[in-house]
Specification:
four-stranded antiparallel β-sheet, 5 helices, single chain, alpha+beta, globular, 4 strands, Arc Repressor Mutant, subunit A
């Protein structure tokens, strides 16, 4: 049986605009968010198409999680990431559309 553990779920009241914008200001993190937004399913940490070291990538995921931009949950040995798109849009309408046009 697969283990499922969620990490950092955010309510719209707990978003801080400065923290979210700071998290989205880095090109690597913005690319991670772009890939998550384009995906209809959660993406495993090791399968993102970015050229950074594993420890650097871990730092970027942590920054996005702490800002509430993404949620990571475990299924077995995989850490799967989901964009908090609905929650971000409720807190900051149009933000993702403004910085990541479809």
């Amino acid at each position: 049986m697969a283990s499922q553990t969620a990490t950092r779920s955010t309510t719209t009241e707990s978003f801080d605009v400065v923290t979210v914008l700071r998290a989205l200001s880095d090109p690597v993190r913005l690319e991670l968010v772009r890939q998550l937004r384009a995906s209809e399913v959660p993406i495993a940490c090791g399968t993102f198409e970015v050229k950074v070291a594993k420890n650097t990538l871990s730092h970027h995921f942590k920054t996005l999680r702490e800002a509430g931009v993404i949620v990571t949950h475990r299924e077995g040995t995989q850490a799967l990431n989901t964009l908090q798109e609905d929650e971000l849009d409720a807190a900051f309408p149009g933000l993702l559309d403004a910085i990541l046009p479809r």
